[in-house]
Specification:
Elements lengths: L5 H15 L2 H4 L1 H11 L3 H13 L5 H13 L3 H14 L4 H13 L3 H14 L4 H13 L3 H14 L4 H13 L3 H14 L4 H20 L3 H21 L4 H15 L1
Helix pairs in contact: 1-3, 1-5, 3-4, 4-5, 5-6, 6-7, 7-8, 7-9, 8-9, 9-10, 10-11, 11-12, 11-13, 12-13, 13-14, 14-15
Length: 259
């Protein structure tokens, strides 16, 4: 099935509602709430959905829309509480499970994300998004080898998904497999050339390859990797010059080049 971003998921909910019940039954407030969400007026969208609940109307779509709105407002507690209410009304729904994992990982709730993913994967083994969130949570908890296995399976369903390539590169970097990290992140950067994070991570990989080759006495190859590290971190800086992480990496890599 098609795997959705949060905004697209809400639009999907709107479409499903249109076919599931007459507009008169739901009331115009829900449709307006979706429109408000789409234009990033999250507080207004919440207000409209809550008015439906006060009127005694209840649907999993309403709670899911509340969850996505609160997530956009960085309110994890209300976001996840409403997602659970949505899942009570439509248990084991694939999109709601996927949305739950998106919320958990965005708010760095790694342990519950792992637990939920381990329940969801047997139900939806072909869903690359669920495996992606599982791999992300595993990598953040230090289970790099298991995370790599999961991201490889996820990539089989979405081979050119830049997020998966980026995560794969980061996991290979954690495992100190710099050549494969280089390959994954180069592929990711070819798809999305405007991501400061990808260029920053690629710079770190080039820096590690520089250090490795320098230790092996391969001076020419080491210098080549160092030049690439400089180029990558410069691109990262041009895209997000305010990032302290990028500033620190840039300072360190530049100092290496000055030696």
């Amino acid at each position: 099935m098609k795997h959705l971003s949060l905004i697209t998921a809400v639009i999907c909910l709107l479409v499903s509602s249109l076919y599931a019940q007459e507009k008169e039954q739901v009331g115009s407030a829900y449709f307006q709430a979706v429109d408000e969400f789409k234009i990033k007026n999250y507080a207004k969208s919440i207000e409209l959905v809550k008015s439906l609940l006060v009127d005694g109307k209840s649907s999993y779509e309403f709670y899911a829309l509340l969850a996505y709105n609160y997530d956009k407002l960085n309110d994890f507690d209300n976001s996840y509480k409403n997602m659970l209410e949505a899942r009570k009304r439509k248990p084991d729904d694939e999109d709601l499970l996927q949305g739950s994992l998106a919320i958990l990982t965005r708010h760095k709730k790694w342990k519950p994300a792992i637990e939920l993913a381990e329940k969801a994967i047997p139900m939806y083994p072909q869903n690359p998004e669920i495996r992606y969130y599982y791999a992300l949570a595993l990598s953040e908890k230090g289970a790099s080898k298991t995370a790599l296995s999961q991201i490889e399976k996820a990539k089989a369903g979405s081979p050119s998904d830049v997020r998966m390539l980026e995560l794969e590169g980061k996991i290979y970097y954690q495992l100190k497999n710099y050549d494969k990290a280089d390959m994954s992140l180069r592929w990711a950067s070819s798809i999305n050339q405007n991501s400061a994070e990808i260029w920053n991570n690629l710079a770190l990989v080039q820096e590690s390859l520089y250090r490795t080759n320098k230790k092996l006495g391969k001076k020419s190859m080491a210098n080549s990797y160092l030049e690439e590290a400089k180029t990558c971190i410069e691109k990262a800086s041009s895209l997000n010059g305010e990032s302290n992480t990028i500033k620190e990496n840039s300072k360190r890599i530049t100092s290496l080049a000055a030696l």
